Structures are given as structure tokens and as C-alpha cells.
């Protein structure tokens, strides 16, 4: 008597749990993004194109101050990622190009070099430094929230593809956070130990004021 009852309970639990599971939740980009992601697009309006992103095949424009380009494939560009916990992107680094120290508050990152070579590294919360020059085919992981960088180590344009453990990993570039805003120079000097003249010079380059 006990076995049939247990089987019946498990059957009900199993069937009800699967009934509430959605296969996917393609982002409806017309509404706001919340901490849980975007609202789901009506299934009748979902097409195969929601699950395909073709933007990583072309090189990004590296004619800028950092001689680098990042092409994101986050949920805003790739609605099918919504709720799936992953995303990607492409890095193009011209000779001398750099992705400055930055963090992704919402995700860990894996980088795969496909052309040239890139010196990449991160700093742990204990201020230990881990860096290496990566060649074609090499992978490196950057733990969530830690400061990290990538810099070209070749005389040609280097290319890498990056993958994140979130559909929207977030980004804060340290240089711009310090010198690309309106925080008054005396306050920046007081927190960085840099002299005001250097800070004003960096603000002028990175678009900051104050």
C-alpha cells in the first residue's frame, strides 16, 4: 500500500513541476530590464532569429583612444539569451590596443584567442596578480567582479571571443570611472594620491570635468 501511494505522490510532483517550466523566455526589449531580466516575448511572436546573432563575424572599429573594439552579444543585442545565464562578445585589438582595467559585476568571463596574441590578467581581492601572454587557441578565465585587462601582444590585430556567465554581465572601466566623470579634482586627488595636474590631464583625455 505504501509503494503505490509514494508512486502517486512522486508522479503528481514530477508532472506539476514540469508543467511550470518554460523552454525559453525570449526578451521583450520594449519593456524595462529588471534584476530578473526582461519580460518574455509572447511565444507566438518568437522566431528562429531570436536565437541567432550574426554580429561577431565582422571586425570592430579600433580607430579610437584605446585602439580596441568590443562587439557585445548581450541580451540587448541577442534576445534569446534572456534568462539563460550566458552571453558573449568579440574583442579586436590593433597593435598597441588595450582593454583597460575593468570589472564585470554580474559575471565571470572566459576569453578565447583566435588571432594574434594578447597579454591578459586579473588582480585578486588579496592583490595577487595573475597574467600571461595568450596565443591562438588559448583560454583564460576572469572571476566575477575582479579587475582585469587585455592588451595586444602582437604586431598585427589580435582577435578574441569572450563568454560570460550572465546575459548582461555589466561593465565598469576603472580609468573612466576615475577620470571620465564630474568628481572634483581635489576629491580624486585625495582618494588616488595623484597630483591635481595629472588628474586634470587625464580628465581632459577621458572626457571628465571638475
UniProtKB/TrEMBL annotation:
Q: What is its main location?
A: secreted
Gene Ontology molecular function: any one: manganese ion binding
What do the Gene Ontology cellular component annotations say? apoplast; extracellular matrix
Where in or outside the cell is it found? Answer: Secreted, Extracellular space, Apoplast
Looking up SUPFAM superfamilies in the UniProt record yields: RmlC-like cupins
The Cupin type-1 domain covers 54-200
Kindly state which keywords UniProt assigns to this record, in alphabetical order: Apoplast, Disulfide bond, Glycoprotein, Manganese, Metal-binding, Secreted, Signal
Q: Which residues form a coiled coil?
A: none
Kindly indicate where the leader peptide sits in this chain: 1-19
User: Which amino acid positions bind oxalate, per UniProt?
Assistant: 104, 109
Any one Pfam family here would be Cupin_1
InterPro entries in UniProt: Cupin_1 (IPR006045), Germin (IPR001929), Germin_Mn-BS (IPR019780), RmlC-like_jellyroll (IPR014710), RmlC_Cupin_sf (IPR011051)
Q: Which positions does UniProt annotate for Mn(2+) binding?
A: 102, 104, 109, 148
Protein's UniProt keywords contain Transferase: no
**Top-rank lineage group of the source organism:** Eukaryota
Disulfide cross-links:
25-40
What CDD domains would the database entry show?
cupin_OxOx
Q: Family membership, please give it.
A: Belongs to the germin family.
Protein name (record): Germin-like protein
Source organism per UniProt: Trapa incisa
Per the UniProt record, the lineage of the source organism begins with: Eukaryota, Viridiplantae, Streptophyta, Embryophyta, Tracheophyta
